Amino acid sequence: xxxxxxxxxxKHEPFSADSVSRQLDYCTYCPKMCRHSCxxxxxSGRETYIPxxxxxxxxxxxxxxxxxxxxxxxPLWACTGCRHCTMYCDHGNEPGLVLFAGRAAAVDHxxxxxxxxxxxxxxxxxxQRLSAQLATGFKEHMATEGDIGYWPGxxxxxxxxxxxxxxxxxxxRVGLDSVKIVEAPQACAGYPLLAAGxxxxxxxxxxxxxxxxxxxxxxxxxxxxxLYAIRSQYAAEGVSVRTEVVSLADVLAPAANNLACSLNRxxxxxxDPCYHARYNNVVEAPRRALGGLAxxxxxxxAKADTECCGGGGLLPKTMPLVADQMAKRRLAxxxxxxxxxxxxxxxxxxxxxxxxxxxSVEVANLATAMAQLSETPFTAPPSSPLDDEI
Length: 390
Ligand code: SF4
Ligand code: SF4
Hints:
alpha/beta, 3 domains, five-stranded parallel β-sheet, 9 strands, 47% helix, 11% strand, globular
């Protein structure tokens, strides 16, 4: 569908002051070369939300040519950090990361997004609720140390308990029964704090999560954005992680050979989470994990050119209708061909796609899909409704 990405992600140190200024200047004077690539502007139909305009708006704020107000900072929140624009930028500019830095500046100026007022307190309360919920549902599977740990992520604990149960059943079935859920006072690795512009709280939280992971040699993370946060942004904030962090797909792919495949191999589509595909390089592992159990079919926008489902950047909180529209766009292709199963490997993508799926499309997290396709039984505790507070 596309001519192929031309940008070079990772070319910049996006948070250094010089780099931010340079990127903002390049974007301000750019003839909008990446305008087609932003799913937020496409889904919303708003010119104000194309990457060039968002970056120009932040540049005007940086240069003091406009004041920080709720209205002037609105475009900074119209981004999921999906990095698709970067793939089409000859300069390798990183609007997603720069706009997140702009959000931190907005918070410093006392102008958080109206939907995120009091977010740090709300985040802490949700952490307490979800870590208690995880302990209630999965106590016998939890430990503070071991060889391999499993970090389900906040959205799975909240809305995808079945996916956690499926992962534990799969581990046991393939001989990885020593894998334990990481027992910790935290449920989330902190990406939402970055996206909300709370850099100081993110740094503090990252230190606590790193300490919780320390008892394990390796931990499989079930959230694409939090895997990115641990691998890239913890170090950027001076927090070192001694534990090897990988995606759930990285652990399940080699073990998938030990699962019996049903005689009737289904065809499934795979949705690449944008943070996995463009930051974490988790592209082939989920396909290998699924490939032994089903025929994996590609969506038109796939692998490094995937399109965001709307779950990133706290967009489901700040612009919920646009976020839902992005998820619907993502599934429209499958719906148009008669429907089917769409599998993804991120807890946030799973609930965003699920709550926007038409009746003909079944959405499944990687672990649940693998358990279903290999007829591995599992029993799930109850979850919150998909349209509940995120
Ligand atoms: S990211 Fe690159 S292509 Fe997009 S507006 Fe900025 S300079 Fe132009
Ligand atoms: S990172 Fe994604 S959502 Fe943000 S401006 Fe670029 S394409 Fe749009």
